[in-house]
């Protein structure tokens, strides 16, 4: 069976009404449809890469191709796990967690997107909490990092509620203009002190070697 060669297919994270896992092909198509409907208001640009500003059909195709690329390029030294977030059995977005040289650095980075119609209901905090539990409790991470534009308050608010602390800024160019990105860092000790939802993890054991853990 394919799962014998790619055990990540059996990894499951559950918290409250959400399940995070890799999608099958039909679920990937449904996730692409969610992206096609929009992931932010037209007058906003929350991502450094402009994939979310593509026309709907191209935006959906980008989601599918990125999913395949990240599976195909995976190594224990350089990996990115793009978990589909399911609510009541239907995809609503992506929660990503990745690392380079995790076996040495014990540090992960996170990123995410959520369909526009599913925002503002607490899903963003729950899905980030799920992958932080995977990282700290499951993989033995020491720290987690994330980044967000300074004028994008929702993810910054989630990060602060989860215990992240400021970790400097980066300056980039978007559409010919300078933008400021805030970096944030969460240590294991701060994660342990933070109130967070209960998370269950299944199917992790066979995957550990793939994470370089």
UniProtKB/TrEMBL annotation:
Gene3D superfamilies: 3.40.630.30. SUPFAM superfamilies: Acyl-CoA N-acyltransferases (Nat). The keyword Transferase applies. Keywords: Transferase. InterPro entries: Acyl_CoA_acyltransferase (IPR016181), GNAT_dom (IPR000182), Ribosomal_N-acetyltransferase (IPR051908). It holds the Pfam family Acetyltransf_3. This is Succinyl-CoA transferase. It comes from Microbispora corallina.
